[in-house]
Amino acid sequence: MHAYRNRPQKISQNAILEKKKLLGQKVSGLIDMGLGLEDAENELKEAKGLINKQKAKTKVNRSANRFKAAVLSVEDEFERFSMEVNYDLVNPLDFKLKLFTGMVLLVVSILIWVHLLLNSVWKQSNGLPKNTFLNQFLLWLEDSVGVGFLSAGVLSAITLYMLLAVVKGNVKFGQQFNGFFTIHPMKRNETLMNSFLFNVSLAMIATLSTIQFVTEEFSQYARLTTVQYIFGTKQKYMTFYDYFYETQTFEMIFLCFSAIFIVCNCIFGKSRPFELKSIQKLKGLADKVSFGLVPE
């Protein structure tokens, strides 16, 4: 939905020239940041002593992360500027499709939230869920004649959506706190191998916890399954883990973190087409903007 809200608009020739000038200034600033990063790396090589080397290394890492975040921001602006310059070539259906997809996923997120509150947080006096909500829907689908297979498809889609949200959230979180975390963006045909491997590893790590979470929240639908036996019986009553299950710790952490990042996302950010390029390519971008190679 952020992509639709910030979609390119048809602008006047004067606005094109003004934006081109502004982009040139930003790119020049990025090149200065890159040169400053090279100086910091040279200081690291010349640093003596373990403490001084560690301080210099921390400074380099934070500067590099901030530089990457700045590059991503400028590239986002340049891509949008290019579409505004060539507005006649922009397909408006792409952004309408993104809006529709965003609205569907927003509904899914709200349903997961409501289900979590009714099924895990809001309990009756006897300890049973106040309402099993999506469990009832999946059981109804399972018992429906001819469409029982849809229940497994719906649960698989919810699980996949949560895994993709982990990868997307990692990029958004890394960009907001760019001085402390390395950004690993993914974009079609422009994803670096280290970013690809990082996100695949992240998804694999998150898979186990996501399956555990989904199994616990959809325990009625997942009854008599192997995964329910592993997470809902064996692990649930193990020493140390039983406390977290009894106090609903995992669900509370999920609710708190999701609420925090919903607020942060509304305050800070729009969706950006992330990509990480070398300084040489960045200088090529500067030449395009500075010397008027962008079509007017």
Describe the structure.
With 296 residues, the chain is an all-alpha fold. The protein is 72% helix and 0% strand. It has helices at residues 2-5, 13-46, 50-85, 92-121, 134-143, 149-176, 193-217, 226-234, 241-246, 249-268, 279-290. The longest helix has 36 residues, at 50-85. The chain is globular and about 65 Å long. It starts with a helix and ends in a 6-residue tail after the last helix. The model is unreliable at 271-296 (pLDDT under 50).
**How much helix is in the residues?**
over 70%
Record field, number of beta strands: 0
Integer-rounded radius of gyration: 24 Å
Structural class: mainly alpha
Summarize the structure.
The chain has about 300 residues and is mostly helical.
Characteristic terms for this protein:
single chain; disordered C terminus; 296 residues; mainly alpha
Write the layout of secondary structure elements.
Layout: H1 2-5, H2 13-46, H3 50-85, H4 92-121, H5 134-143, H6 149-176, H7 193-217, H8 226-234, H9 241-246, H10 249-268, H11 279-290
